[in-house]
Amino acid sequence: KKIEPKKSEYVIASDTAFAPFEFQNTDNKYEGIDVDLLNKAAEMQGFKLKWNHIGFAGAVQAVQGNQADAMIAGMTITDERKQSFDFSDPYFESGIQLAIKKDNDEIKTYADLKGKKVGAKIGTESADFLQKNKAKYGYTIKQYDTADGLYDSVRGGQIDAIMDDYPVIGYAISQGQELATPIKRESGGSYGFAVKKGQAPELLEMFNEALTEMKRTGEYDKILDKYIADGN
Ligand code: GLN
User: Fold this and answer.
1) What is the structure's pLDDT at 231?
2) Predicted local confidence at residue 230, as pLDDT
3) Number of DSSP helices (H) and strands (E) in the chain, helices first
4) pTM attached to this predicted model
């Protein structure tokens, strides 16, 4: 089914570095699962996109402030976010996980984080999780604007651990980053394409139609396989 776009172009906000969902390749072009899925959906449904890779918290603000029509940024669908966003059908099952430097043998459980510094990206599920469990485990939180800063800090030893989405940590490790994940990941949380609540329902509809079709034809698996080896 083809849905009629209501705008000549939709502005899409996204993260700057959230590999394998969006990241700059060696030609400084953005690619990744989110980028490929939405570009393909636009091609299939016949709508135009303008990408703005501005960071996760920036994307949330851009959509809420009407500077962008939608965001795709490995964004977890949560009840809290549903108060201000409408989401597409879920397109990827994720979950968050703790990561430490590979040679760190002090941290094996959350309780080992007592007195340690733990980092996460501003405005994310991981930052929320750390905030919620801070009193229980007795760590301090450092917030970062970008993944680069976050990952550099844990590898450089400025912080003891980070919390991030498991496929992103998995991808970093597969790319040779010396990290380890001693604690089982927190389950749950699916990614959705999001618009500001009550706005641009046709955009979600077009995405959902294309997603269903991509799953049927195998295009969806093809895109995932391009970036994630063995289902990660
Ligand atoms: N999935 C996480 C969230 O929604 C992180 C997203 C991101 O950092 N791009 O908060």
Assistant:
1) 46
2) 60
3) 8, 14
4) 0.96
